[in-house]
From TrEMBL:
UniProt gene name: walR_71
Record GO terms (molecular function): phosphorelay response regulator activity; transcription cis-regulatory region binding
Stored SUPFAM superfamilies: C-terminal effector domain of the bipartite response regulators (SSF46894)
SMART domains, per database record: Trans_reg_C
Protein name as it appears in the record: Transcriptional regulatory protein WalR
Keyword Phosphoprotein: yes
Keywords assigned by UniProt, alphabetized: DNA-binding, Phosphoprotein, Transcription, Transcription regulation, Two-component regulatory system
Length: 114
């Protein structure tokens, strides 16, 4: 929930990138004001990448940081989740504005036009 300061000002815990807003308190994301239907894992991945904007993470790093130590899947799990996330977040998933692939390295959040 947004917090209210002593002066009555409402503060939200949001990450804003052009038309994409990630609300950490409400655990939701909006693009152009429309709420995106994200799974919890998709939201956690989006949040993690956005909080570390500009940094490239390998599949293994994302599995460790987002899925946690208890996850025993493979790196393709990350690829599938990124693909599904792009379908929801990006206007054109084939030409992403937010989540980029660095071939042979991994993924990064690199918002264009923010």
């Amino acid at each position: 929930m947004p917090t209210v300061t002593a002066s009555g000002e409402v503060q939200s815990n949001c990450l804003e990138f052009s038309e994409l807003i990630i609300d950490l308190d409400l655990v939701e994301a909006r693009r152009s004001g429309k709420k995106l239907d994200l799974t919890l894992r998709e939201f956690e991945l989006l949040k993690f990448l956005a909080q570390n904007s500009g940094r490239v993470f390998s599949r293994d790093e994302l599995l460790q940081k987002v899925w946690g130590f208890e996850f025993f899947g493979d790196g393709r799990t990350v690829d599938v989740t990124v693909r599904r996330l792009r379908e929801k977040v990006e206007i054109d998933p084939s030409s992403p504005q937010y989540i980029e692939t660095r071939r042979g390295v991994g993924y990064l959040f690199n918002p264009k036009g923010s």
